[in-house]
Amino acid sequence: MTLQKQRVRWAWIFLAPMLLVLAFVAGWPLLKTMAYGFTDASLINPESAQFVGFDNFAFLLQDPYWWASVWNTVVFAVSSVFLETVLGLIIALALNAQFRGRGGLRAAILIPWAIPTVVSAQMWNWMFNDVFGVINHMLLGVGLIQEPIAWTASPDTALLSIILVDVWKTTPFMALLLLAGLQMLPKECYESARVDGVHPVKVFFKVTLPLLKPALMVAIIFRLLDALRVFDLVYVMSGNNRSTMSMSVYARQQLIDFGGLGFGSAAATLIFAIIALFTVVYLMAARVGREN
Amino acid sequence: MNAKQMKKIISRTAFYLLLAVIGLYTVFPFYWAIVSSLKTGSTLFEVEYWVSNPYWQNYVSVFQEQPFGRNILNSLFVSVSTVALSLALALAAAYAIGRIQFRGRMLLLFVILGVSMFPQIAVLSGMFELINSLGLYNNLLALSFSYLIFTLPFTVWVLTTFMRELPKELEEAAIVDGATPFTIVTQVFMPLMGPALVTTGLLAFIAAWNEFLFALTFTLSSEMRTVPVAIALTSGASAHELPWGNIMAASVIVTVPLIILVLVFQKRIVSGLTAGAVKG
Predict the structure, then answer these.
(1) From CA B232, how far away is CA A82, in angstroms rounded?
(2) pLDDT digits (tens, 9 = 90+) for B79-103
(3) B13 and B131 belong to one structural domain
(4) The model's pTM
(5) Which domain holds residue B194?
(6) Residues of chain A contacting B129 with CB distance shorter than 8 Å
(7) What dotted CATH number matches A54-291?
């Protein structure tokens, strides 16, 4: 046997345990969930499941609560990723400049990232408290609002509160990715722009932004995929509340709280399909972009 | 002073103001949690930005009123075991993917990346059934096991990018000496991969430590809860009387070690995060 052939055989020996575990924790549960989606299985007695074809999906597509959760998730994902990108870009540009205490500030912005999501949800729940919360206190103090707002309880502001917490928590990640992107940009462009006396704002839009676009796109896609499957933040901040419920919260409620193993699995399968479709479209767009 | 100097001073001040706002925005919420955790039941409901005489009782009662010590041990057990298992499996896999040319390698990386994009909800019912049939419901092993779905793809991915960057000559010398691939991984690469293993392990540890959906769904009794579930489900005498002092104390307890770890390893964490994302 040649050396190369021997090495290939070793490669599969080394890969086998990892692949086996992955098939067990990811492949099998995914297929099983999809299969449940076509049955009327209940959580208490999964064995008595009957095949019902596309009934669950048909019912799902006419459930207004499902569509409300899809809408909430989309609003949440698009607005929080948009805000994170803008804020993250501002922070990355600021950190890219030279100033005293730069290392300290870069360390400080890691703090929100390191805090567990559940903890940040509870911290902000307390800050958003309608009677004793520091946020109402501050806003009343500077006269921005006339009376306290029930941030997390009122359906008008609950989703906004959740978005604000997500922005706070994940902007650092965005900022660090973009900072890494900024530091890889060629210095020469900036030198010549400065020599020519181009206004910094113009430099940003004509030089920095186009060069940063690949890093920006990767960061945005990663964050969008993450935001579309949001569960913990929404659940801890407002439970199974219908006005903020995300797709994942909807599916879990059907599955566990209502015991509808079949119906909940159908919802979970649809979420998987939506995210997979999104990923495939992105990968194809990226490939087309690269070939051009 | 001419107009140009004036303009420079103004823009300088504006820049430092921006930095101050960024700093305040990122740090204030956690600062506020610390301040709130040091207040008594009644002073908690007055907004004061500084505590003059700290009240430590919240830190005691969080351990007395709920099995919080047990919850911390649970989280430690689950996170450490799942990270150790992931690193062992991923190191072997990363060697195969990163150093050996074989057909289907790109497809394999693609599949692994795909698994890391799985929404956890998409496997929840299948995983629930699997855990039940293994008799692991309300057992910490269920969490150590199910967390592999997100720690394993991530560690394989990052370790592969690190593995690729190591010089070829090292391995060639070992092959000439007749070393088996097993010896090469354990004797040659493992020592060199030390820093990468620490970074990747730390990031996977944080992910496992913070996980909520599986921990909420696969455990039942409060003794089996991990820290995030315990903090999320802390309840008071009624739904409207949440013990905020206790919740904030618990939050500070579990977050301070993480923040220290992150600050100590900040350079490595940033490089690990960007290796995972940018190179993807």
Answers:
(1) 28
(2) 999 999 999 999 999 999 988 888 8
(3) no
(4) 0.91
(5) 67-277
(6) 29, 32, 36, 46
(7) 1.10.3720.10
